[in-house]
Amino acid sequence: MNVGIIGAGTMGSGIAQVASTAGCTVKLFDLNQSALDKAKAALEKILTRLIEKGRVDADEKTRIQSNISYVNTLKELSDSNVTIEAIVENIEVKKNVFIELERYVSEDCIIASNTSSLSIASIAASLQKPERCVGIHFFNPAPLMKLVEVVPAIQTSKEVLEKAKQTLLDWKKVVAVAKDTPGFIVNRVARPFYGESLRIYEEGIADFATIDYSLKTIGKFRMGPFELMDFIGNDVNYTVTETVFTAFYFDPRYKPSFTQKRFAEAGYLGRKSGKGFYDYS
Ligand code: NAD
């Protein structure tokens, strides 16, 4: 199977690894050459670590790496059977990419988006063949997180939904089908989790580390909310909250936080920028 991935950032590079590990031929596209270089270097590091842990051997590493090519133009994805878009969480930017992509790919190519919060129906509406569009929502880090939400839009054909589900099962993922609603399942539940943690901090009840410690030790979460927001990226996480809040007609349960907004504006994005709620330098 030929898989085209659009966007070589956190999610796109992880999804490329998942598909190439499953034996697919992958083309990873990004406008930004440094993102492609970074994705390639990150994969080398990850696979070297997996060899040290005895999880893959040298042949497997070579196979996974040689299955992926890093490309600079969208046109190079023309032979894809499935494309998965993982670029910036902005509906207009995504739509423009999808309109261009549809000019190059075959009639039966599935066009999927990894959006966390945008309407799949609205993305699908930008296509000539909206029935080929579906949400395929991986979690971060994509190679480790088993769950993938598959989100059919009202336009999505049954055949495309089934093909998307089967592809993910072939990639050893667990699939949950969710309706096309803001945040789907996991990101909707997660909004009040982050939001209430930020409000606890804003009200001076406890600092980041204390809130994280409490939820990890008592709540048995793997990561505390501030560690998780830093891991996801405060820019991405804030935008998703704002989108879900707006899409639910300003329901206060999903209200974004000024604290996180300021962190995102200041460039304190979390791990990827070296500083967020915690310091990673
Ligand atoms: P990111 O910022 O790490 O990467 C985005 C990449 O897209 C960048 O490399 C950028 O150069 C590239 N890009 C931007 N516009 C482009 C264009 N027009 N054409 C080609 N490439 C372009 O973002 P991310 O965290 O990987 O998120 C990507 C998508 O996945 C978003 O829709 C986000 O909501 C969703 N998502 C993110 C997470 C997460 O935890 N970060 C989890 C699930 C879903």
UniProtKB/TrEMBL annotation:
<dbReference type="GO" id="GO:0070403">
    <property type="term" value="F:NAD+ binding"/>
</dbReference>
<feature type="domain" description="3-hydroxyacyl-CoA dehydrogenase NAD binding">
    <location>
        <begin position="2"/>
        <end position="181"/>
    </location>
</feature>
<dbReference type="GO" id="GO:0008691">
    <property type="term" value="F:3-hydroxybutyryl-CoA dehydrogenase activity"/>
</dbReference>
<feature type="domain" description="3-hydroxyacyl-CoA dehydrogenase C-terminal">
    <location>
        <begin position="183"/>
        <end position="280"/>
    </location>
</feature>
<keyword id="KW-0560">Oxidoreductase</keyword>
<protein>
    <submittedName>
        <fullName>3-hydroxybutyryl-CoA dehydrogenase</fullName>
    </submittedName>
</protein>
<dbReference type="GO" id="GO:0006635">
    <property type="term" value="P:fatty acid beta-oxidation"/>
</dbReference>
